TrEMBL record:
Gene3D superfamilies per record: P-loop containing nucleotide triphosphate hydrolases (3.40.50.300)
Keyword field contains Transferase: no
An example molecular function term from Gene Ontology annotations: ATP hydrolysis activity
Protein name: Iron dicitrate ABC transporter ATP-binding protein
Matches recorded under PANTHER family: IRON(3+)-HYDROXAMATE IMPORT ATP-BINDING PROTEIN FHUC (PTHR42771:SF2)
Subcellular location: Cell membrane
Keyword Ion transport: yes
InterPro entries (UniProt xref): AAA+_ATPase, ABC_transporter-like_ATP-bd, ABC_transporter-like_CS, P-loop_NTPase, Siderophore_ABC-ATPase
Signal peptide coordinates: none
Origin species: Serinicoccus chungangensis
Keywords, alphabetical: ATP-binding, Cell membrane, Ion transport, Iron, Iron transport, Membrane, Nucleotide-binding, Transport
Record's bilayer topology term: Peripheral membrane protein
Parts of the chain that traverse the membrane: none
Length: 272
């Protein structure tokens, strides 16, 4: 794996029909780092990921992969460099886990080519990393939500791309499996140099695991940079309309958001 790939959104506007969702957004994804995208519902996070992955063409601007507009590049060539796990992926009815994860190898297959040892190794490694090896003979639609999510992540890992885009990869997972998945993505980043961009709802997990944090608001990039610089009480209030207190996470040292509800008064932070 290499961190030499570049991915940039240049003045990108995106929408569906006459409805604009993302308006004139500029974003440079730091290569070889973990970027987390946060923001309120319907602010354009998932739409941005779809554009970065070539699934959605901008109405204005362009997404540039390695110096070339991504929509001008061959589909398989892009898929060998960049993988996407969408928010709500759909599996063919009755497909087995082993067959679904194996589909992650399709960008590497050529016409009339045979299944190679490298393909088998990639699938087995992805299953082991996600703890889904014991599910290979099960039908995907028979699994729990958390099991399905880990299987989809396994398929994305089997693709073995240098850039990995994940839209809410911790959806349906309990807190233990959330941490396992985020630790796994961190391992991929550190050992292989995989560039990771993920949309997360949990601000504290986003701040803990990201090198680079992007806050979106109303289809625009409100702030981007180190979690310590982006995740402030002012940003949280502007993005989510929520009063909060931001303190240092006692585990990671990264910023941690403490929401302030209507029935709670703001208390000064005390240190033992």
């Amino acid at each position: 794996m290499t961190d030499s790939h570049t991915l940039v959104a240049e003045r990108v506007s995106l929408g569906y029909g006459d409805r604009t969702v993302v308006d004139g957004l500029d974003l440079t994804v730091p290569p070889g780092r973990i970027t987390a995208v946060v923001g309120a519902n319907a602010c354009g996070k998932s739409t941005l990921l779809r554009a970065l992955s070539r699934l959605l063409a901008p109405s204005q601007g362009q997404v540039v992969l390695d110096g070339k507009a991504v929509h001008t590049q061959p589909t398989k060539a892009v898929a060998r460099t960049m993988g996407l796990l969408p928010q709500s992926p759909l599996a063919p009815e009755g497909i087995a886990v082993a067959d679904l994860v194996a589909r992650g190898r399709s960008p590497h297959q050529r016409m009339l080519s045979r299944w190679a040892v490298a393909d088998e190794q990639a699938v087995q490694e992805a299953l082991e990393l996600t703890g889904t090896s014991d599910l290979v003979d099960r039908a995907v639609d028979e699994l729990s939500g958390g099991q399905r999510q880990r299987v989809w992540i396994a398929m994305a890992l089997a693709q073995q791309t240098d850039i990995l885009l994940l839209d809410e990869p911790t959806t349906y997972l309990d807190i233990c499996h959330q941490i396992e998945v985020l630790d796994l993505l961190t391992d991929l980043n550190r050992t292989r140099g995989t560039t990771i961009v993920m949309v997360l709802h949990d601000l504290n997990l986003a701040a803990r695991y990201a090198d680079h944090l992007v806050a979106m608001c109303g289809g625009r990039l409100l702030a981007g940079g180190r979690p310590e610089d982006v995740l402030t009480a002012a940003t949280v209030e502007k993005v989510f309309g929520l009063r909060s207190q931001v303190v240092a996470d006692p585990v990671s040292g990264k910023p941690m958001v403490l929401p302030i509800g209507r029935h709670h008064a703001l208390q000064p932070v005390t240190h033992a």
